[in-house]
Amino acid sequence: MESLPDIARVVQLPDGTHVYVDPAHLPAPHSGPQVVHQHVHQAPPDRTVQRIALGSGVGAEAVAAGVYFGPLLVGVLTAMAANLALLALIAAVCAWGVVTVVKSVGGQDGKNAAKNITKARRR
Q: Rounded distance, CA 102 to CA 96, Å?
């Protein structure tokens, strides 16, 4: 068996094998700034429901439709909720405007009408 130099290092090659390397034959280390490539990935979606559905006998097409249309449905419902919230805000502003105008323009009758509206809302 041939003896190895004391300075030999064990290096793992890309194919997974280990070899002895003499450091004198290695390329010189890079002296410039080190570039770090960082990849940020989203967490994979939770597939528990799909696994249960496949285990219970539902076909792969139904599971694929759930995977596709599930997030799509959430997006559509969120957009509808935002539209309804905006419409509710507009309705509240309009009602406030009507009550303010009735109070200021209507005199005593307007103030009484505004009080009646306020009482009706509290009931």
A: 10
Tell whether the model's pLDDT for residue 1 goes beyond 60.
Answer: no
Q: Hey, what are 61's tokens?
A: 């097409």
Measure the CA–CA gap between 74 and 66, rounded to whole angstroms: 12
Least confident of 40-44, 61-65, 72-76, 115-119: 40-44
What's phi and psi for 43, nearest 5 deg?
Answer: -65, 145
Calpha distance 103→111 (Å, rounded): 5
Helix (H) or strand (E) holding 103: helix 60-105
Q: Whole-angstrom Cα distance, residue 29 to residue 109? A: 91
* Distance (Å, whole) CA 10 – CA 21: 6
| Higher-pLDDT residue of 75, 37 | 75
